[in-house]
Backbone:
């Protein structure tokens, strides 16, 4: 009888790659906790640890690209009884991007985080948060996704209040309450979902969802998921916790939060609402379009109104989330073949583009594939660029002695390399060529016009214009002009660590690593477009995902 | 039984939301506790209240011989209890530290991170 419910075949060592990113994070977090008194060793263990995580992520991405979605059943129970870890191209891309920025941030943290803060457990918290982030991207079970959300939230709480300054306690209070309510809403919805389906395995739900075509209860559940994940992703009107808190912790912590945590919400939205419930998603697409437009405008106008560099960047995060949401709203406008338009968008500059492993698609799904591919591309770009911007801002603020645009200045003359990198990242975040922000916006604007939502395309372009203005203001005030007359050096705005000033050269290394991606994805976008296209197809037509869970696991 | 529990869940949600809408952190904390308990009962109810027999299967059988209780919601609730308890402990300490350092538990007056009347950014140079 055991054979009915258990996976009998032994797992090949390479099958463990599916859980490797999570396991490595947890193991290194535990080891660092055990040697918490030897804080000098922490960076020397943490940097190789994050390199291992990144290596596991990349190997997993290559395996998924070569063999399709991978599944591992916890405890050897067959689906849908055991908890499934299922990774397809979407999850593999997100987890690789997160491992990439975590590696860069760990190098940056090894010079910018003081000994006291290491003693309070900076690196163990970082590993714990990354375990949560990686787990959320890899799991194939709705309740397990909730658990990983909580794991990353606990880790982020620890990082957020590191230092216990007044500002941080204020920001953390708002962040904690609002995120707790959002995850509780996720849990409530999971309870309803279980009550309706009797299962929590994503593949099982995707198969059974067709039987609830016109069910009001299911639409309610999808709306609740939309609200919960929008709050996690900081989409308007649930975005207010983000500008209230993301500028209070250490720069490197802000960088990882801005890069990763909101994107986990976006990923969960794509995975659950788009993949599991396509008819309900199509019904809600106009609402998502409005949310996207308002989020973009709130982010762009908010950025223009700020006088503090970090608070300005907070609003860039919000604007980026709006742009990603725009890609999730592109249904309708029937009959346009998706792959052709996507390939031609990338082929505009590079004629040798090869269309991805193109399976014929339903015509109506074409626009969604285009939008989703653009949204995933933009999310990956946003993960890297937002992390890079906060790290560069951290270095700039440390040199200038302040993060207020009123006090900064003279950095172009003093640190030309830093200024050049900052300019690259500002171009990328505004969506200007030849950097990584340009191509996903091309795809999204074209997709919006094809899907019959020209106003949404116009909002994307207008937001890009406003963000260019805000970026120009950052560069003109903090870098281009001479330092303001009353020298304010030595008046730290709260979170500047004098220890890190010893080696600004080492803090440039992660910026260079991140800039390499920004340039590579901007100059040669087709490899990334090919991958995001596969990811988008996998979400719109999850047959391979289901096959991996029910067939390939045994 | 499900109907009665649903009503309990509804009442708990209503009270929790009312408390969470307060300006004072101490009331919001009470709201968080009630919210967590409401969710636990909700999951328990969503799993259907079927039977009181424990879900034990004899060694020589592959399925339960009688009607048994659904064990999965209990596992979910147990996980959720642990998580909500640890979160509440953290929030309690955080709120106390915030009250000590900021001198208020009124969220309207907690404006350290986002000062009022910050003024516009420099408009030229």
Residues:
């Amino acid at each position: 009888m055991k054979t009915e419910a258990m996976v009998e075949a032994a797992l090949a060592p390479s099958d463990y790659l599916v859980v490797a990113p999570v396991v490595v994070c947890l193991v290194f977090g535990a080891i660092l906790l055990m040697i918490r008194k030897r804080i000098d060793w922490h960076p020397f263990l943490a940097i190789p640890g994050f390199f291992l995580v990144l290596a596991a992520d990349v190997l997993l991405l290559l395996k998924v690209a070569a063999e399709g979605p991978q599944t591992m059943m916890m405890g050897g129970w067959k689906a849908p009884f055991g908890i499934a870890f299922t990774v397809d191209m979407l999850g593999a891309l997100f987890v690789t991007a997160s491992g990439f920025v975590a590696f860069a941030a760990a190098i940056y943290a090894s010079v910018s985080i003081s000994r006291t803060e290491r003693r309070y457990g900076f690196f163990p918290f970082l590993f714990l948060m990354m375990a949560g982030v990686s787990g959320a991207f890899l799991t194939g079970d709705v309740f397990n996704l909730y658990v990983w959300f909580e794991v990353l939230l606990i880790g982020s709480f620890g990082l957020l209040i590191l230092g216990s300054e007044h500002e941080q306690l204020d920001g953390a209070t708002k962040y904690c309450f609002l995120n707790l309510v959002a995850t509780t809403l996720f849990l409530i919805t999971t309870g309803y979902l279980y009550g309706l389906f009797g299962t929590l395995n994503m593949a099982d739900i995707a198969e059974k969802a067709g039987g609830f075509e016109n069910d009001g209860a299911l639409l309610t559940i999808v709306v609740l998921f939309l609200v919960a994940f929008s709050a996690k992703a900081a989409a308007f009107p649930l975005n207010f916790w983000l500008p209230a808190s993301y500028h209070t912790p250490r720069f490197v912590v802000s960088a990882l939060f801005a890069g990763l945590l909101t994107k986990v919400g976006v990923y969960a939205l794509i995975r659950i609402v788009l993949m599991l419930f396509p008819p309900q998603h199509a019904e809600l697409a106009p609402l998502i379009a409005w949310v996207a437009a308002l989020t973009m405008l709130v982010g762009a106008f908010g950025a223009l109104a700020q006088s503090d560099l970090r608070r300005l960047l907070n609003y860039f995060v919000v604007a980026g989330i709006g742009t990603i949401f725009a890609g999730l709203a592109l249904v309708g406008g029937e009959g346009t073949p998706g792959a052709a338009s996507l390939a031609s968008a990338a082929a505009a500059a590079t004629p040798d583009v090869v269309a991805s492993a193109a399976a014929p698609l339903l015509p109506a799904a074409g626009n969604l594939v285009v939008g989703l591919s653009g949204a995933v591309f933009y999310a990956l770009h946003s993960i890297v660029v937002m992390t890079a911007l906060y790290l560069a801002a951290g270095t700039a603020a440390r040199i200038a002695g302040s993060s207020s645009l009123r006090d900064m200045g003279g950095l172009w003359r003093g640190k030309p390399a830093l200024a050049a990198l900052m300019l690259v990242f500002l171009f990328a975040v505004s969506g200007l060529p030849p950097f990584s922000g340009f191509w996903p916006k091309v795809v999204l604007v074209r997709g919006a016009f094809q899907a019959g939502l020209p106003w949404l395309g116009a909002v994307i372009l207008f937001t890009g214009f406003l963000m260019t203005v805000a970026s120009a203001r950052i560069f003109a005030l903090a870098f281009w002009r001479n330092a303001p007359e009353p020298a304010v050096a030595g008046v730290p705005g709260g979170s500047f660590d004098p220890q890190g000033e010893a080696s600004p050269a080492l803090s440039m290394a992660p910026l260079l690593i991140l800039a390499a991606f920004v340039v590579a994805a901007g100059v040669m976008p087709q490899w990334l477009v090919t991958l995001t296209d596969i990811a988008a197809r996998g979400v719109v037509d999850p047959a391979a995902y289901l096959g991996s869970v029910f067939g390939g696991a045994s | 039984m499900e109907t009665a529990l649903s009503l309990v869940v509804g009442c708990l949600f209503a009270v929790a939301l009312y408390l969470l809408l307060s300006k004072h952190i101490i009331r919001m904390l009470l709201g968080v506790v009630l919210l967590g308990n409401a969710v636990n009962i909700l999951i328990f109810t969503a799993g259907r209240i079927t039977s009181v027999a424990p879900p034990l299967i004899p060694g020589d059988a592959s399925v339960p011989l009688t009607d048994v209780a659904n064990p999965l919601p209990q596992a979910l609730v147990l996980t959720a209890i642990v998580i909500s308890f640890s979160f509440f402990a953290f929030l309690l300490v955080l709120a106390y530290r915030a009250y000590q350092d900021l001198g208020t538990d009124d969220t309207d007056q907690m404006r350290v991170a986002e000062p009022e009347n910050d003024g516009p950014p420099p408009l030229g140079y």
